[in-house]
Write a structure and sequence with these properties.
The complex is a heterodimer of chains A (266) and B (305). Chain A is elongated, with a radius of gyration of 22 Å. The mean pLDDT of chain A is 86. The longest helix of chain A has 37 residues. Chain A has one domain: MetI-like fold, CATH 1.10.3720. Chain A is mostly helical. Helices cover 73% and strands 0% of the residues of chain A. Chain B folds into two domains: 85 residues, no CATH class; 189 residues, Orthogonal Bundle (MetI-like fold). In chain B, 78% of the residues lie in helices and 0% in strands. In chain B, helix 5 packs parallel to helix 12 and helix 7 crosses helix 8. The longest helix of chain B has 38 residues. Chain B is elongated and about 85 Å long. The mean pLDDT of chain B is 86. Classes of the chains: A mainly alpha (266), B mainly alpha (305). At the A-B interface, helix 4, helix 5, helix 8 and helix 10 of A face helix 1, helix 6, helix 7, helix 10 and helix 11 of B.
């Protein structure tokens, strides 16, 4: 949790936390290993990369891209998947069958390969990557929400609302959406973690965000050529990604448990 | 069973068709693929000529019909980079990818099953806690970072294993471990929970009560009943294994399908991208089918209509 707070703070206000410019190059200071003591008056706690840029600063600034892409992709998947899930579950029929077939087809296909193929077509950029990740993520929401709505529809309070003459829109917005909200939140949390990893992987492969912007995946990609001389260049950003994903996953797990408990207590 | 297999195979074809259609449509709708293929200094005449020779001047429906007609015959067009048919190019690389993912599955099972069983047997003890934490971390670690760290440790530091190319077991170990360890983490968690369930069943108590040795009870009675979901999850995870293999192949210069895909993306060689998408879809659905059939073989209670 603490880790997650730090990462979020880094993403919101990197300039407050660190004064070194992440893009400032200094060839004379390249590939310095992590050290607490200062060399030539500047302290590079986590060392420097092949262009002499400060790794800590790049990690802090790189959190922006990860958090932005992760959160935006999750929000967009919710925006695409939840309405479809609600409609499929509530109305059923032919639309439901078609959409669920599409979902099945997509689920059978590896998301990483799909993402690469889509980026190939759309071209690499931050915006396109968010779109690609959201296309990969809507299915989960649509399927799970549909399933929930199918069972919620049979509940007394929904039947009561129907009997009182509530319109479909009222039932969906006032009763079904609030009831499915915990599920949406839990799925979206895990999706943020997944999106961060896929973003880093795509950027690592040169298919993601531009190399000018500091990003964790880009740092790992740079590090590849310097494994022998500067191993920390790979170890540090990878560790940061893994810790971030781990803490988001744990947060998702605790959210789910908290909601389950509340549900049981009712 | 036969009817089930045939139906599933048809399903696999539908998935492959759907995936190809998506790539086809996106390619045509998201701009002009012809201008992407031409060099910057190309003239308008070159443009028109290439557009005609690739069939891009025909209406979309006609293009799609031609695409489907050719795809059924296994013809995905010529690779612009390699100047040879796209599908055989992909199939040529398939054995390398199979070798990598197959070995990765073996590593996943070889690590995941013992650790999962250990955690279930020693439930609540330190060994269980450690195992569960390790598997939680294993699921959070990005494959490509794992690959880099393995290189750092086993190739750079201890100089034990080679880091690039294909050929022999020594070159296979590092990439397969990078792809296989996240799978091991998933198998550990799953097997632990199914084993715990099975170990509390009546027939295990009966087996213990009639004086069978603990290892016979554990492996013959418990593990055999708990292994079904593991096989299913290997089938389900095959897709993400392939995804992981794409990145890993790039890191280790492994001459497989994933590296071909990335090179094709870099060269804007869309025919090859389409062929890879088609083959991947067939592979993933095929792997799920194999997992389901294996499930029925291992556990005779499983019957498919």
């Amino acid at each position: 949790m603490l880790w997650l707070m730090v990462v979020l703070m880094c993403a919101i206000a990197p300039q407050v936390l660190i004064s070194i410019d992440p893009n400032e190059q200094d060839i004379s200071r390249r590939c310095l290993s992590p050290a607490l003591s200062a060399t030539d008056g500047v302290r590079n706690v986590l060392g420097t990369d092949q262009l002499g840029r400060d790794i800590l600063s790049r990690i802090v600034w790189g959190s922006r891209i990860s958090i932005l892409v992760g959160a935006a992709a999750a929000v967009l998947s919710v925006a695409m998947g939840v309405p479809l899930g609600l409609l499929c579950g509530y109305y059923g029929g032919k639309t439901d069958r078609i959409i669920m077939h599409i979902a099945d087809i997509q689920l059978a296909f590896p998301s990483m390969v799909l993402a690469i193929a889509l980026v190939a077509v759309l071209g690499p950029s931050t915006r396109n990557m968010i779109i690609v990740l959201a296309i990969g993520g809507w299915v989960q929401h649509a399927r799970v929400i549909r399933g929930q709505v199918l069972s919620l529809r049979e509940k007394e309070y929904v039947k009561a609302a129907e009997a009182l003459g509530a319109t479909d829109a009222e039932i969906i917005l006032r009763h079904l959406v609030p009831a499915t909200f915990p599920t949406i939140l839990v799925i979206a949390t895990f999706q943020v973690a997944g999106a961060i990893v896929t973003e880093a992987a795509l950027t690592f492969l040169g298919l993601g965000v531009s190399r000018v912007v500091p990003s964790w995946g880009g740092m790992l990609s740079d590090a590849q050529d310097y494994l022998v001389t500067a191993g920390w260049m790979a170890t540090i950003p990878g560790f940061v990604i893994a810790m971030t994903v781990l803490s988001i996953n744990i947060a998702g797990d605790s959210l789910r448990q908290a909601f389950d408990r509340r549900f049981r207590d009712r | 069973m036969q009817r089930y297999v045939v139906r599933r195979l048809l399903g696999a074809l539908i998935v492959a068709w759907g995936a190809c259609t998506v790539v086809f449509l996106l390619l045509r709708l998201s701009g002009d693929p012809v201008s992407l293929l031409l060099p910057v200094e190309a003239s308008y005449e070159d443009y028109v000529q290439l557009k005609h020779s690739l069939g891009f001047d025909k209406p979309l429906v006609v293009q799609y019909w031609n695409f489907l007609k050719n795809a059924i015959r296994g013809d995905f067009g010529m690779s612009l980079r390699y100047r040879s048919p796209a599908l055989p190019l992909v199939l040529e690389r398939l054995p390398a990818t199979f070798e990598l993912t197959g070995f990765a599955v073996l590593i996943g099972l070889a690590v995941g099953i013992p650790v999962g069983v250990l955690c279930a047997v020693h439930r609540g003890k330190p060994i269980d806690t450690i195992g569960m934490w390790l598997s939680l971390c294993g699921q959070a670690v990005p494959v490509f970072w794992l690959a880099l760290e393995l290189i750092l440790i086993f190739a750079v530091k201890f100089r034990l294993l080679p880091t690039y190319g294909r050929g022999g077991l020594r070159r296979l170990i590092l990439p397969a471990t990078a792809v296989g360890l996240p799978l091991a983490a998933i198998i550990t968690r799953l097997l632990k929970s199914t084993m715990e369930e099975v170990l509390s069943e009546d027939y295990i108590r009966t087996a213990n009560a009639k004086g069978l040795g603990p290892s016979i009870v554990l492996f013959k009675h418990a593990l055999r009943n708990a292994i079904g979901p593991v096989l299913t999850i290997v089938g389900v995870q095959f897709g993400s294994l392939l995804g992981g293999a794409v990145v890993t192949e790039m890191v280790f210069a492994w001459p497989g399908m994933g590296r071909l895909l990335l090179q094709a993306v870099g060269n804007r060689d869309f025919e090859v991208v389409q062929a890879v998408v088609f083959v991947t879809a067939l592979l993933v659905t095929g792997a799920n089918l194999v997992a389901d059939v294996l499930c029925a073989v291992v556990d005779p209670r499983v019957r498919y209509e």
